[in-house]
């Protein structure tokens, strides 16, 4: 793997992106790599075996981060395993003694959808398996809570640090379109980010819930025929928005907010379409 590029804008800064073997997480990790960051890439999919049929592993993502000019570090981690999450935090602390950014992106509940269950995904809650709700909260909201709880002391010890929780906009009028379990989990993520902001603010750590739009991930594109992709975002575009956010000298003014990628992209003049 390539060593971290000296003198680049993110040189010396360390990020942890969860759920980064593919999709939005991979795009964020790559954008941070282009900016010269050291990026810990965690997920279950690895060279030893992928979770499902979609491409992508933590090793492939970390190598791409390094090839882009950053320093990618792959760690296989099931974010439902509290000990595994704590081990990642301990490794970062022992190796770097700092953590500038955590992107809570790991997410459970897409497994059946990615396997082709489009009709089930769009069915009313009484026709969906209860395991869908459990997967989204255990592999999503709870995973975000545990990662933040474990790494908060390291964030507090690092000036200018932040946690970004990847969530999604679920409006009152459109909540039926996303399913009750999905809507409940995303709203819980937003509240988690806001509650964390209140507790982390005195320590100078920003906590933000970030809402991408429709992102052209591997999982989304297999259902392209059902979707309107005009105005959609690329995974790397979401990542470049986070890079710009972390360069904002007024980052703390945004803590506790629920922000749209599209709005931040306009603010920072980032093209999220490519």
Question: What would you say the CATH architecture is?
Answer: 3-Layer(aba) Sandwich
Largest sheet: 7 strands, parallel
Arithmetic mean of pLDDT: 92
As a percent range, the share of helical residues equals 40-55%
Count of helical stretches: 11
SS-derived structural category: alpha/beta
Level-1 CATH class name: Alpha Beta
Structure description:
This protein has 274 residues and is an alpha/beta fold. The chain has one domain: 3-Layer(aba) Sandwich (Rossmann fold). It has eleven helices and seven strands. It has a seven-stranded parallel beta sheet, sandwiched between helices. The radius of gyration is 17 Å and the shape is globular. The chain starts with 13 loop residues before the first strand and ends in a 6-residue tail after the last helix.
Summary of the model, kept short:
The chain has 11 helices and 7 strands. The chain is of the alpha/beta class and 274 residues long.
């Amino acid at each position: 793997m390539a060593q971290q590029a000296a003198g680049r804008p993110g040189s010396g800064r360390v990020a942890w992106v969860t759920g980064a073997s593919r999709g939005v997480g991979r795009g964020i990790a790559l954008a941070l790599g282009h900016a010269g960051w050291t990026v810990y890439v965690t997920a279950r999919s690895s060279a030893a075996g992928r979770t499902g049929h979609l491409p992508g592993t933590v090793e492939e993502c970390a190598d791409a981060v390094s090839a882009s000019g950053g320093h990618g570090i792959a760690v296989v981690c099931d974010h439902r395993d509290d000990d595994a999450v704590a081990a990642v935090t301990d490794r970062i602390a022992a190796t770097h003694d700092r953590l500038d950014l955590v992107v809570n992106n790991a997410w459970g509940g897409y497994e059946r959808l990615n396997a082709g269950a489009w009709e089930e995904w769009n069915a009313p809650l009484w026709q969906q398996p209860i395991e869908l709700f459990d997967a989204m909260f255990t592999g999503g909201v709870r995973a975000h809570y545990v990662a933040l709880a474990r790494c908060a002391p390291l964030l507090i010890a690092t000036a200018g640090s932040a946690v970004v929780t990847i969530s999604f906009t679920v409006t009152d009028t459109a909540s039926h379109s996303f399913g009750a379990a999905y809507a409940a989990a995303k709203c819980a993520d937003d509240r988690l980010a806001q509650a964390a902001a209140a507790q982390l603010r005195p320590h100078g750590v920003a906590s933000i819930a970030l809402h991408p739009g429709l992102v052209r991930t591997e999982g989304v594109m297999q259902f392209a025929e059902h979707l309107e992709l005009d105005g959609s975002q690329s995974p790397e575009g979401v990542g470049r928005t986070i890079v710009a956010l972390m360069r904002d000298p007024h980052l703390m003014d945004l803590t506790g907010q629920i922000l749209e990628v599209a709005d931040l992209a306009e603010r920072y003049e980032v093209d999220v379409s490519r």
